[in-house]
Specification:
CATH class of the domain at 43-140: Alpha Beta
Oligomer: single chain
Distance between the termini: 20 Å
CATH superfamily of the domain at 43-140: Ribonuclease H-like superfamily/Ribonuclease H
Structural class: mainly alpha
Order of helices and strands: EEHHHEHEHHH
Strand order of the largest sheet: 1-2
Number of strands: 4
Strand content: 5-15%
CATH topology of the domain at 43-140: Nucleotidyltransferase, domain 5
Low-confidence stretches: none
Radius of gyration: 16 Å
CATH architecture of the domain at 43-140: 2-Layer Sandwich
Mean pLDDT: 88
């Protein structure tokens, strides 16, 4: 959660999907079934996440994708996600029209002027931290 140009709170949890994870997903996210063994089911995590976000505006680097995914997962549990969303990728295309691409790491490097941090891309918390830094920079522009 970003307030006053600072990250104030973070939410993170793994979810045990209760089924095998494809090799392709493991390669993209670096998460394997051993890491998820003993983790809570999606119902518990999504209920906590809904409480965490409350009515906040959600900021994401590909908001249309993320919001479709979240709405689907919430609807499976009979929950409704009505939060508004802002897309840093869409804003970046307007503010930085000459970038070679608008991947999260490219926009992060350009917007912050910092070398890409040692993080695990496509991991929710690390991606959220990058998006927060991009968002704070965009708000100063």
């Amino acid at each position: 959660m970003v307030e006053n140009d600072l990250t104030q709170k973070e939410f993170h949890s793994f979810i045990n999907p209760g089924k095998a994870i494809s090799k392709a997903a493991q390669k993209i996210h670096g998460i394997n079934i051993e890491m998820l063994t003993g983790q809570p089911a999606s119902e518990a995590v999504l209920n906590k996440f809904k409480s965490f976000i409350s009515s906040s505006v959600l900021i994401s680097h590909n908001a249309s994708f993320d919001m479709k995914f979240l709405r689907y997962e919430f609807s499976r549990l009979g929950l409704c996600l009505t939060n508004k969303a802002i897309c840093t990728m869409k804003i970046s295309r307007e503010i930085f029209p000459d970038l070679p691409d608008y991947r999260l790491e490219t926009v992060y490097r350009y917007a912050t002027g910092n070398p890409f941090e040692k993080i695990k891309i496509h991991r929710a918390l690390d991606d959220a931290r990058l998006v927060a830094k991009i968002w704070m920079k965009l708000m100063r522009e």
